[in-house]
Amino acid sequence: MSDKENLRIQLKDGDVVIELLDKVAPKHVERIKTLANEGTYDNVAFHRVIDGFMAQTGDVENANMEKDYNPSRAGTGGSKYPDVEAEFSNVPFERGTCGMARSQMPNSANSQFFIMFQEGGFLNGQYTVWGQVISGMEHVDAIVKGEPPKNPDRMIKVTVEKA
Prior knowledge:
Blueprint: E1 5-11, E2 14-20, H1 26-38, E3 44-45, E4 48-50, E5 54-57, E6 97-100, E7 113-116, E8 129-135, H2 137-141, E9 154-155, E10 157-162
Antiparallel strand pairs: 1-2, 1-10, 2-8, 3-9, 4-5, 5-7, 6-7, 6-8
């Protein structure tokens, strides 16, 4: 029996399954799992979606669609937990790679993350890679674009499951 786990994100068009790379970024994977297991990611908007680059979500403080979604503040918040120290690796940013968003400070990742639409080598070694989409990338491609989108898509439900 495998102890590997995946993250499942329910989107309006279908589910996205992400392989959690706990050997690459154990602290970040643990944070993602904690927030998913608590239900904190449920109903959170994709607040920054740049065509040909990436879709960013995870601002659990300012982008929850059921609480007080504020497009002007979405992308500025984190979770109730402290920031996570960077876990940079040699894993490249390719289509479907999941990385942690952060400020200019390398150790400022918290709850926000992004999924790459295509290769982004300029991010290699600068941002923490924590996962890779293994199914449902077509649903990521369909996420409404914008910075922020006028009517953003959201993560309807986020769960951790055995691989």
